[in-house]
Amino acid sequence: MQLGAYRPGSSLVHRAPLGLKSAAVVLGSVAMLAAAHPLATGAGALLTLLAYAGAGLLRELLLPVRLMWPVLLVLAGFQFWQAGPWTAVTVIGNILVCVLAARLLVLTVPMPLLLDGVVGLVRPLRVLGADPERFGLALALMLRSVPYLLGSASDVRDSAKARGLERNPRALAVPVVIRAVAYAQQTGDALAARGIGEPDRD
């Protein structure tokens, strides 16, 4: 199950420069989170909705909601209990808007271009000891891992439901954790076999 993969297109959103889109996502998310108000969340949601419509990708809006709803439900309940309904709406809305905005960036920028942009952004930090290429590799692994882990959670949930255990937290959590650890181990072994990630030795 793919949470984010490039969708080719010729819309204005697709053709906008990567730097402009990245700045809009980052600055918009920071402003919305700093405001911490339902009106700011609503404005962010409206702008994000318009951006998806402009890109012709409205059908992609519901996938993150379908994948994240158990976590969002728990967070909403906790925030409602701790701080009331408006805080719950604001927190959950902010999370969704940030995820959708970041996903739109992934959907409208080819992955090689996106990774090159991130590496270029980190390159000036070489003077501080940063390794841009390794950072880009870590980002690529993260973007590849998230859909796998979400798909794994969905498979476990379906399996538990088939056995009548969909309300058993252990039946849901333990297999997901085991799969995540196994996936991380396999990825680490594959990188080590190629000599990637090992510290440089003089």
Number of domains: 2
Give the structural class.
mainly alpha
Total count of helical runs of at least 4 residues: 8
How far the N terminus sits from the C terminus, by CA atoms, comes to 43 Å
Q: Write down the Rg.
A: 19 Å
Overall form = globular
**Series of H and E elements:** HHHHHHHH
For the report, how would you describe the main beta sheet?
none
Mean pLDDT: 80
Number of strands: 0
Oligomer: single chain
- Share in β-strands: under 5%
Relative helix content: over 70%
In short:
The protein has 202 residues and is mainly alpha-helical.
What can you see in these coordinates?
By secondary structure, the chain is an all-alpha fold. The protein folds into 2 domains: 1-109, no CATH class; 111-202, no CATH class. Helices cover 76% and strands 0% of the residues. The longest helix has 31 residues, at 132-162. The chain is globular, with a radius of gyration of 19 Å. The N and C termini lie far apart (43 Å).
